[in-house]
Specification:
alpha+beta; seven-stranded antiparallel β-sheet; Glutamine Phosphoribosylpyrophosphate, subunit 1, domain 1; globular
């Protein structure tokens, strides 16, 4: 999970890119970067940290140009160095800067091709740099030697060949110096990408982003989502938008975007994240209501803040009081996307504080978006009991998470997933609750489908569903787990190579 942004305008874009990355900060708090083009030179500034910490006034003044891209990074295993912050840049052909959200699941195979056959050097272990070099190589094949220029149809031919070489879930944002912006999305649409536009002066301005909230908050009108398997190219000179369906699409958007990753005020593939979460709450409430052994519940309290709309609708369905029992420290980042379990556990006490009056002597139903490792849930339950709760029940808006996600979410090994190892009663005991409810898989999928009946299925591989992209076999999953364990214990992979699943 990362955030990508691209803009082409009639005036300098750096302030808009900065503002857009601030809006997308929830998608990555590990690193940030911006690349712009001023007609002569590509300017890049990137580094570790939050957007506000990476960019200073001197950086903003240097990032000149009416075209640019931005990126906020959330790391998966092994990718924490400043050198691997995005965007990446290569100077041929023409100069290309690229940022992407997702994971390439056939990294090792493609890396060998890039190094041995394409004769290109990779300076980091990021699959974003690999993807950039694949794109650069395929574009060079389309550049005529007599008249070295690029036309939209040539760009789309190159992207079509890129699709044939790479596997996984990805949303790509690239800038070609002297030409324009290029964006494309994996054939399954696992990672989101959306286009907005606004009319200022003679030419239409365009903004492409991971979530619609960035488009709307910056005064753009939503045009449409980038379709799975589609490439979009916007000419820098004319601002004309070109598009092509490069490969056959099999839409299966990531269901975890709706559970946790995306902001509630976003739309993904035409589906309101907020309304989906409300429907999740209603379905979970109906499940609890139908339980013949349903415990007596005095109050429903959300674990801030993704689960708020879920808990409100659940309480309404059960006709039980809803209350806010936690105060969130707004200056602590999202614990789920922190790069280590140690930081996640350390931060939870700083992030949340209880309001004891809301818990003391009451039978409390806590509602959270999901239970991944179980450590955070256990810490929260401990806090609630310390606040004086009589009974503590827990409802997860997501079904049990039993498998690693290989498309860009940090839940990579089955040993780390509590639902892969324990039964529901055992999980309840492990996190310290008197009763535990999980959302049913079909209810979750229906809650999202209801927002767009054209989408028949979603990627729910982490919840026991199929892996829709790439040949993800049991052998691949075991290799991923072994390599991740080697990285965690030794600080690097056993052979000095990149993990099978790379930094998004």
């Amino acid at each position: 999970m990362c955030g990508v942004l691209g803009m082409i305008a009639n005036q300098p874009v750096v302030q808009d890119l900065y503002d857009g990355l601030i809006v997308l900060q929830h998608r990555g708090q590990d690193a940030a970067g911006i690349a712009t083009y001023d007609g002569n030179q590509v300017h890049i500034k990137k580094g570790n940290g939050l957007v506000r910490d990476v960019f200073r006034t001197k950086n903003m003044l240097r990032l000149q140009g009416n075209m640019g891209i931005g990126h906020v990074r959330y790391p998966t295993a092994g990718c924490y160095t400043e050198e691997e912050a995005q965007p990446f840049y290569v100077n041929a052909p023409f100069g290309i800067a690229l940022g992407h959200n997702g994971n390439l699941t056939n990294y090792k195979k493609v890396k060998q091709e890039v190094v041995d056959k394409d004769l290109r050097h990779l300076n980091t272990t990021s699959d974003s740099e690999l993807l950039l070099n694949v794109l650069a190589h395929e574009l060079i094949q389309e550049v005529p030697k007599k008249n070295p220029t690029l036309k939209p149809e040539q760009i789309f031919k190159a992207v079509t060949r890129v699709y044939k070489r790479i596997e996984g879930g990805y949303a790509v944002m690239a800038m070609i110096a002297g030409y324009g912006l290029l964006a494309f999305r994996d054939p399954n649409g696992i990672r989101p990408l959306i286009v907005g536009h606004r009319k200022i002066g003679q030419k239409t301005e365009y903004l492409i982003a991971s979530e619609s909230v960035a488009i709307q908050s910056m005064g753009f009108e939503i045009l449409r989502d980038v379709n799975p398997g589609e490439a979009i190219y916007i000419d820098q000179k004319t601002h004309k938008l070109h598009s092509k369906q490069c490969v056959k699409a099999e839409p299966t958007p990531c269901i975890f975007e709706f559970v946790y990753l995306a902001r509630p005020d976003s739309f993904i593939d035409g589906i309101s994240v907020y309304k989906t979460r409300q429907r999740m709450g209603k379905k979970l409430g109906e499940q609890i209501k139908a339980d013949s052994k349903r415990p007596e519940i005095d109050v429903v309290i959300p674990v801030p803040e993704t689960s708020r709309p879920i808990a409100m609708t659940l309480a309404e369905t059960l006709k039980v009081k809803y209350s806010e029992g936690f105060v969130k420290n707004r200056y602590i980042g999202r614990t789920f996307i922190m790069p280590s379990q140690h930081l996640r556990q350390k931060s939870i006490r700083y992030k949340l504080n209880t309001i004891p009056l809301e818990f003391k002597g009451k039978n409390v139903l806590l509602v959270d978006d999901s239970i991944v490792r179980g450590n955070t849930s256990r810490k929260i339950v401990e806090m609630v009991r310390e606040a004086g709760a009589k009974k503590v029940y827990f409802a997860s808006a997501a079904p049990p998470i039993v498998n690693p996600d290989v498309y860009g979410i940090d839940m990579p090994t089955r040993k780390e997933l509590i639902a892969n190892r324990l039964t529901i009663p055992q999980i309840a005991k492990a996190i310290g609750v008197d009763k535990l409810y999980y959302q049913k898989t079909e209810d979750l999928l229906d809650a999202a489908r209801e927002g767009n009946k054209k989408i028949k299925d979603f990627c729910w591989s982490s919840m026991g569903g199929p892996y829709p992209a790439g040949n993800i076999t049991e052998a691949v999953l075991k290799r991923v787990e072994e390599e991740r364990f080697a990285f965690q214990t030794e600080g690097s992979t056993a052979d000095g190579d990149q993990l099978e699943l790379n930094c998004i």
